[in-house]
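Supplementary notes for students who missed Thursday's class. We covered one full example, reproduced here. Read the sequence, then the structure, then the short commentary at the end.
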Amino acid sequence: MRLLHTSDWHLGRSFHREGMIGAQATFVDHLLEVVDAEQVDVVLVSGDVYDRALPPVDAVELADEAFARLAATGVRVVVTSGNHDSPIRLGAHSRLADAAGVHLRTRWQDVGTPVQLEDEHGPVAVYGLPYLEPDAVRQAWALPARSHEAALRAAMERVRADLARRPGARSVVMAHAFVAGVADRPEQLASDSERDLSVGGVQVAPSALFDGIDYTALGHLHAPHVLGDALRYSGSPLAYSFSEASHTKGSWLVDLGARGTPCRAELVPAPVPRRLATVRGRLEDLVRDPGLEAVEDHWLQVVLTDAHRPAQAMARLQERFPHALLLDFRPDVAPRRAGPVVPRMHGRSDLDIALGFVAEVRQMEATTEEELLLQMACDSCRIAEDADPLGAVHEQAR
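Structure (token representation):
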């Protein structure tokens, strides 16, 4: 049986104000091409179909189009909800969708009930685990702790109990969670665009929970990760933060053989709408450096190192780099002395203290215009302090 494992579409998401719906539609086209060219039997979508619980109309229309086109090919589709999805909205009309071969698994109450498939080697049970919020299942499942590990452990107990009633069946589990092996460093697996799953300080579940499963299709982390031959993250099909610039985006094409034989997997790269890069330096150097020609058409994160913040920096950058999206300011200056600064307050005016603060923090004195604004602010505060509160009350009464 040939599986195509994908996740974290995040339909409706933008990239630093750049709309991504066109790039997401291109990915759907790519997905259909892979299904056709590789003769895929089952498409697994492991959560975060949408970027938020109430997705925009064009995102809903694209998801509807994607599932309808997949169903028309005759491929079976199993979809689970992620932490960004609304289980109720994504799972609407699930019984009707089942009839078309699109199986929406978004309810924790259905954990342990598989989508039943079959090939020349016999039955395959696909268990779609939706994102399991510990508080939602803690009482019903009598969880011993308020953690994702406890919720996943309870879910896998239900999966294994059902598998015990299906001797000879191969198993596929889909889960949307932060899973790591003993030797993995979780902080190195995550990216800036993933929503923290911390509950009570516990967010990482051990990969051992899925031992013995023929293939586990994970979602949530945005880079493809191989935690084991049969335990993988597909990652998101598109980059959603500059921390993902080095990722190779795509989907896993997985061949599930006879029971007891290892599965084989190959990453199928997804189309890249525009490459990402980060450049660092002084503004004048960046706009003149001929060595940066290669990134002129990239989406750019720019880190300026000028000693003082240049005026109209983004406008000047975009004259050369029209797709510069993110601007950060980190001046290359000598490290400031450690410890808090305790300014001399006695005998100084409010304006003098404010001007001293600006000079200390920015290492540059305020301009004439800024000094005028600070003076107006100080005067406004003084007028407010001098106002008669009882007079204001009497005025309101009249």
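Commentary. Residues 198-202 have pLDDT under 50 and may be disordered. The CA atoms of residues 248 and 269 lie 7 Å apart. If anything here is unclear, bring it to office hours.
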